[in-house]
Amino acid sequence: MNDSLTATQHSRATTAPSDVAPAIVSVRNLTKTYASGYQALKPIDLEIRRGEIFALLGPNGAGKTTLISIICGLVNPSGGTVLADGHDIVRDYRAARERIGLVPQELTSDAFESVWNTVSFSRGLFGKPADPAHVERVLKDLALWDKRDNKLITLSGGMKRRVLIAKALSHEPQILFLDEPTAGVDVELRRDMWNVVRGLREAGVTIILTTHYIEEAEEMADRIGVINKGEIILVRDKRELMRQLGRKQMTLQLQQPLAALPPALAGYPLELADDGFELVYSYDSQQQQTGITGLLDAVSAAGIEIKDLHTRQSSLEDIFVNLVKERQ
């Protein structure tokens, strides 16, 4: 990410996210029920802090797209309010929408149009005067400058994703929604996209990310929100979420396989794995007493020889799956 992005966005650069950071998006009692009677969103309250990267996770059909579409002014809510940088998305639609950029999953622009014209035209759609210098900076920051005269149809999948971001940034929004930004993109390009997003956040843009890639949220987000069946079931700082809900596993690799757990170990939360060559012990790392010392003593007393051991922290994917299972 070039330093010019910071210059481009300097007027809205903010301090790093913190517990006291003000909200730039405020959702209050938001609902959506379609004409068929299907309730896509139950009453939702949500605040997204200025300058943060917020990851919204949820299974297919959970309500992610509906929620984003309402905030971006593309779908009308059935009830409740949404403020974007203090502007009501219904009563003050134009001002609210000007502050929001949306990067959809699919490129919908004319495939035979050039990159430069596509981004410039998008800026004009928001009533912004032509600003070739701004468009140039955006294209350079996204490594698209050398492709500015290329037709969209000639670009790779990764470059098309960058064009989507350039379009969303063309009118200088303060809030950027990324809907599955790296879907179908290879690992190397995905890492490049992560660097782009971090650079945008450093320049003062608030990022709201939806993703099916759990590692993407774990890598990038400041806070995590989980939505399921139209309800926000959890919003938490990522580190706090990992600390409070994450568990650790200790795997004991054995010299000789066990056909079954010895009675002396029946009181421990153990599982046999790898055809009896492993004992897996799950524990809460936040507890003052993890029980590991007692377990190792009991294993030794039972005459079981340990070849090696290692521990593993629960990933965000483990936490997410468990949260969704609990609500089913």
Structural summary, described in words:
The protein is built from 11 helices and 14 strands. It has 328 residues and is α/β, with parallel strands linked by helices. It folds into 2 domains: 4-243, P-loop containing nucleotide triphosphate hydrolases (Rossmann fold, 3-Layer(aba) Sandwich); 247-314, Alpha-Beta Plaits (2-Layer Sandwich). Strands 6-7-8-3-9-10 form a 6-stranded mixed beta sheet, sandwiched between helices. Strand 1 and strand 2 form a beta hairpin. The longest helix is centred in the middle third of the chain and has 16 residues, at 187-202. The two termini are 42 Å apart. This is ABC transporter ATP-binding protein. Residues 25-254 form the ABC transporter domain. Pfam families: ABC_tran. It comes from Modicisalibacter zincidurans.
Write a concise keyword list for the protein shown above:
2 domains, 328 residues, four-stranded antiparallel β-sheet, 11 helices, Rossmann fold, 14 strands, single chain, Alpha-Beta Plaits, six-stranded mixed β-sheet, 32% helix, alpha/beta
